[in-house]
Write a structure and sequence with these properties.
The structure holds three protein chains of three kinds. Chain B is mainly α. Chain B has helices spanning 6-28, 37-55, 57-63, 66-86, 122-149. Chain C has helices at 7-25, 30-58, 90-113, 120-139, 143-161, 168-199, 204-210, 215-232, 240-247, 250-274, 283-304, 309-333, 338-377, 393-406, 413-428, 430-455, 471-489, 491-507, 509-518; strands spanning 61-65, 84-88. The chains are: A mainly alpha, B mainly alpha, C mainly alpha.
Chain lengths: 116, 164, 526
C-alpha cells in the first residue's frame, strides 16, 4: 500500500499542473504550471525505476556482493527530461518577459491579437 | 539593478570561486560520481549568477562579452560531435580512446575500488565539452534575461532589421 | 562493408555540425555564412537521397551508436537491444527524403528573405537543430530518442517562430505553440513511461514483438494519439497551427511543415508498427477517421473567411492534415483484414502516403510564395493587394502550380492522391468521400480568391515600385515547383517507386521487428 504513495503524489501533481495550465490567466503562472507537470512526469519515471534491494549499475561493482543491478534507463530518461525542461522553462519565461514589453500585460485575456 | 552592499559583494566575490571549483570537480568526475557535464556546468554557471546579482548588470557588461560565451558553446559542441565522428571506423560515438593508454585510456580495475579518473575514454572528453557548452549557454541565458528585464540598457551590439 | 552503412549517423551528424559551426562561420562575414547554410543543406539532402536509394535496394537498415560495430544490436548475448538504435525502413527513408527537400528549399529561400535582419548566425544554428530533430524523429528506433528528438525540433522551432520578436503577434504565436507542444511532448514521455513500466524496454521493435493488449497499453496508446495529433494540428487542438505558421518567417514555415509531418510519422509508427496487431477493434481507426474528417472540414471552412494570406494558407494545412489522417485511418481499419486491405485499405494507404509528399511540396511552395508577396509588398492583408501579376510574373507562375496542385486539378499530383482517397473512402462509407470532395471544392474556391485578389486586377498606384523577388528566393521556390511538376508528369513512376514501397513497409509489421533481431551480430564486447 505504502509503495503506491509516490504514484498518488504523481497523480496529484499532474492534476494540479493541468488545472493550472487551463485556469490560470497569468503567463508566468502558466509557465510554473508546465514545470509542475514536468516534475510529475520526472517523479513518475524515477518511481518506476526503483527496485527494492537493487544496487547501482557501476562497472567496477560487477563482480561484487550484490549482483542485482537496477537498469539505469529511467535515470537517463529523467536526466534528459530535466535538461529539456530547463531549456523550455527558460524560453517560456523569456517569451513571457518579451510579451510583457509588447502588450504591457501578462494576462492571457489581453494577449490576444491573433484570433479567428 | 543596482549593486548590492559592499558586504554582499565581498561575500559573492569570494564564494563564486568556490562554486566554480566545485562545478569543475563535478564535470571532471562525471563518469565516476553522480553528476557530469550538464550538472557541473550548471554549477559553474552560478558563478555568473552570483556576480550578476552582486554587481548589477551594467558592471558585468563592461567585464564580459557575449561573444566569449557563444565561442564556448560552439567549441564545446564541436568537440562533442567530433569525438563522435572520430569513432566512425567502428560506429558513431564508438569509444575509441578506452583501454588505449594515454591520458584517458587506462584500464579499469575490477572489483570495489575508489574509482580511477583516467579510465573512461571519450566519455570524459564528452563530459568536458558538454560542461564547456553548458557554462557558455547558461551564462548567456542569464545575461540575456537580465538585459531583457532592463530594456533601457541593451546588451552588446545594436540589432538591425527588427524595426518594422 | 561500404561507407554507406554509416549514412544514418551522418544524416544526424552533418546538420548538427552545421548548427554548431554556424556561429563561427559568421566571423567570416555574410558570404561565408550563407555558403555554409546552403552547403550543409545540400549535403544533408544528398545524404537523405543516398539513404533512400540504399534502403530501396537493400531493405531495412539498422545502425547502432556507441558499440563495437554499427550492426551490433544485441551485444553480449542480450535478448533486447540496449544501445541507441536507428532503424530506417522504406517509410522512414521516404519521410527523410521529402523533409530534406523541404528543408533545402526553405534554406535557399531564407538567404535573401532574411538578409536585412541581424542575429542570422543564431537563425542558421536553430534551423539546423530543427532539421536534426526532424530527421531524428523519422529514423530513430526507440521511443525515448523519439521524445528527445521531438523536443529538439520543438524547442528550436519555438525560437524560429518567435524570430521576429519585435512583433508581439510572433511572440504570442510562439507562446501558444510552445504550450501545446510542451504538453504534447510530456504526454509522449508519460506514454513511454507507461510502456516501460510493463515491459522494461523502450525499443520500438522489441515493444512491437512483446506487446499485449491491456489497460496499460490502452492508456499509452491514448496518450500517444492525443499528443501526436496535437503536434500535427488535428482539429480540436489546431489553434496553434495558423498562428505559428503565419507568424514564422516563410522559409521556416516551409521546414515547420516537414516537422509536423514527422509527428504524423510518429503517430503512424505507433499505431501501425507497435499496436498494429490490436487494430481489429474499430475504435482507434474510427477515432482517427473522425479527427481527419473534422480537420478537413473545419480547417477549410475557417480558411475561406480569412483575409491574411499566411493565415488562409495555414488553415488549409489543418484541412490537408485531415486528408492524411483520413487515408491512414481507413488503412488502419483494414489492417487486420486481408480482404479489406486488398479491396480498399491499401489504396487508402497509398493515397495517404502520396498526400504526405504532395502536401509537403505544394504547401511549402504556397508559404514561400506568400513570403515572396510579403517581401515584395510589405503587406499581409489580401484587401490591400492587387495587380501584382504584372510585376511578379515568376512568383505568380509558381503560385499557380502550387494552387492547382492543392486544389486537386488534373493533371497535378494533388489530383492523383485525392483520387486514391475518394475511391477507397467511398468503399468504407460514402459520406467520407462526400466530405473529402466538398473540402476539395472549398479549397479551390479559396485559392481562386487569393489568386484573383493578389495577382489579377488593375495595377495599383502604391505598388508602382514593386519588383520581382531576388534570384535565390526564386531558386528556393523552384526546387519545390520542379518537384511538384515531376510528380505530376510521372505519376506512375512516383506511385511505383516512391509511394508503394513506403506504404508496404508501413503495413509490414514483421519485417520492421525482424530487422533488429536478425541482422544483429551477437557477440562479446562491452
Amino acid at each position: 500500500m505504502t509503495g503506491n504513495f509516490p504514484y498518488l503524489v504523481v497523480g496529484i501533481l499532474f492534476v494540479m499542473g493541468f488545472i493550472g495550465i487551463i485556469f490560470e490567466k497569468n503567463l508566468v503562472k502558466i509557465a510554473i504550471a508546465v514545470s509542475v507537470v514536468e516534475a510529475a512526469t520526472n517523479l513518475f519515471i524515477i518511481t518506476l525505476g526503483y527496485r527494492s534491494g537493487g544496487s547501482i549499475p557501476v562497472w567496477t561493482m560487477a563482480g561484487g556482493g550484490s549482483s542485482r543491478m537496477v537498469l539505469p534507463t529511467p535515470q537517463a530518461l529523467t536526466l534528459t527530461a530535466i535538461v529539456i525542461g530547463l531549456a523550455t522553462t527558460a524560453l517560456m519565461l523569456s517569451f513571457a518577459m518579451t510579451i510583457y514589453r509588447h502588450y504591457g500585460s501578462l494576462d492571457v485575456r489581453d494577449v490576444r491579437r491573433l484570433q479567428g | 539593478m543596482n549593486p548590492l552592499s559592499v558586504v554582499a559583494r565581498t561575500v559573492c566575490n569570494l564564494f563564486a570561486w568556490f562554486l566554480a571549483v566545485f562545478g569543475i570537480y563535478v564535470i571532471v568526475h562525471g563518469h565516476l560520481t553522480p553528476g557530469g557535464g550538464f550538472q557541473g556546468g550548471a554549477v559553474v554557471a552560478t558563478f555568473m549568477a552570483f556576480l550578476l546579482v552582486a554587481h548589477g548588470g551594467r558592471k558585468m557588461q563592461s567585464w564580459v562579452r557575449k561573444e566569449l560565451f557563444t565561442l564556448m558553446e560552439c567549441v564545446g559542441l564541436t568537440i562533442f560531435i567530433s569525438a563522435g565522428l572520430l569513432g566512425m571506423s567502428n560506429t558513431f560515438f564508438f569509444n575509441f580512446l578506452a583501454k588505449a593508454g594515454g591520458l584517458f585510456g587506462s584500464t579499469v580495475p575490477l572489483g570495489p575500488n575508489p574509482g580511477a579518473l583516467n579510465t573512461s575514454g571519450t566519455i570524459a572528453l564528452m563530459n568536458l565539452s558538454v560542461g564547456l557548452e553548458v557554462v557558455g549557454g547558461l551564462s548567456m541565458i542569464l545575461l540575456y534575461m537580465f538585459s531583457g528585464v532592463h530594456p533601457e540598457e541593451p546588451f552588446g551590439r545594436e540589432e538591425t532589421g527588427h524595426d518594422r | 562493408m561500404s561507407w554507406q552503412v554509416h549514412l544514418p549517423a551522418l544524416l544526424l551528424a552533418v546538420p548538427l555540425l552545421g548548427a554548431f559551426l554556424a556561429p563561427l562561420t559568421a566571423l567570416g562575414g555574410k558570404g561565408l555564412r550563407n555558403t555554409w547554410f546552403v552547403l550543409v543543406s545540400a549535403a544533408f539532402t544528398m545524404i537523405a537521397f543516398l539513404l533512400w536509394t540504399r534502403v530501396g535496394s537493400t531493405g531495412t537498415a539498422i545502425y547502432v551508436m556507441g558499440g563495437q560495430g554499427w550492426n551490433l544490436a544485441l551485444p553480449s548475448g542480450m535478448s533486447i537491444p540496449v544501445r541507441i538504435l536507428m532503424e530506417i525502413d522504406a517509410f522512414s527513408a521516404f519521410m527523410v527524403l521529402l523533409s530534406a527537400v523541404a528543408a533545402l528549399a526553405g534554406a535557399v529561400f531564407s538567404i535573401a528573405y532574411m538578409d536585412r535582419f541581424s542575429g542570422l548566425e543564431k537563425f542558421v544554428a536553430l534551423y539546423f537543430l530543427m532539421v536534426t530533430g526532424m530527421f531524428g524523429m523519422e529514423i530513430t528506433g526507440d521511443f525515448f530518442n523519439f521524445f528527445v528528438f521531438l523536443e529538439i525540433s520543438s524547442v528550436a522551432s519555438f525560437g524560429l517562430v518567435a524570430f521576429w520578436r519585435d512583433r508581439g503577434e510572433a511572440l504570442e504565436a510562439a507562446f501558444k505553440y510552445m504550450l501545446v507542444s510542451t504538453l504534447g511532448a510530456l504526454m509522449v514521455l508519460v506514454a513511454v513511461a507507461f510502456l516501460y513500466s510493463k515491459y522494461n524496454v523502450v525499443n520500438m521493435a522489441t515493444l512491437g514483438k512483446v506487446i499485449e493488449w491491456g489497460i496499460v497499453e490502452k492508456t499509452a496508446l491514448v496518450l500517444f494519439l492525443t499528443a501526436l495529433a496535437m503536434k500535427c494540428g488535428a482539429v480540436p487542438m489546431h489553434m496553434w497551427m495558423p498562428d505559428a505558421y503565419a507568424e514564422a518567417p516563410a522559409g521556416v514555415t516551409c521546414a515547420l511543415i516537414a516537422v509536423s509531418q514527422a509527428s504524423l510519422y510518429g503517430l503512424f509508427r505507433v499505431t501501425y508498427t507497435i499496436f498494429g496487431a490490436f487494430m481489429g477493434s474499430p475504435v482507434i481507426p474510427w477515432v482517427i477517421i473522425v479527427l481527419g474528417v473534422l480537420s478537413m472540414f473545419i480547417g477549410v471552412s475557417m480558411a475561406v473567411i480569412q483575409k491574411e494570406v499566411g493565415r488562409l494558407i495555414a488553415y488549409h494545412s489543418v484541412s490537408q492534415v485531415g486528408y492524411m489522417l483520413l487515408g491512414f485511418g481507413v488503412g488502419l481499419l483494414a489492417l487486420s483484414d486481408a480482404r479489406a486491405m486488398a479491396e480498399y485499405g491499401f489504396t487508402a494507404l497509398k493515397g495517404g502516403v502520396y498526400h504526405i509528399v504532395n502536401y509537403t511540396m505544394y504547401k511549402g511552395l504556397l508559404f514561400l510564395s506568400a513570403g515572396a508577396l510579403y517581401y515584395a509588398t510589405g503587406c499581409r492583408n489580401l484587401n490591400d493587394m492587387g495587380g501584382l501579376g504584372r510585376k511578379m510574373p515568376k512568383t505568380m507562375a509558381l503560385f499557380m502550380i502550387a494552387a492547382a496542385a492543392i486544389a486537386g486539378l488534373p493533371p497535378f499530383n494533388g489530383f492523383v492522391s485525392k483520387l486514391f482517397l475518394y475511391e477507397s473512402t467511398f468503399a468504407v462509407h460514402p459520406i467520407l468521400a462526400v466530405f473529402a470532395m466538398v473540402t476539395s471544392v472549398l479549397t479551390l474556391a479559396s485559392f481562386v480568391k487569393i489568386f484573383q485578389t493578389a495577382f489579377l486586377g488593375p495595377a495599383l498606384q502604391k505598388f508602382e515600385g514593386v519588383r520581382e523577388v531576388p534570384g535565390t528566393m526564386l531558386l528556393g521556390m523552384s526546387v519545390l515547383g520542379v518537384a511538384i511538376l515531376a510528380l505530376s508528369l510521372f505519376p506512375t513512376w512516383s506511385v511505383n517507386h516512391l509511394v508503394e514501397p513506403a506504404a508496404k513497409a508501413l503495413v509490414d509489421q514483421a519485417s520492421y521487428i525482424g530487422a533488429v533481431f536478425s541482422a544483429s551480430v551477437t557477440g562479446g564486447g562491452l
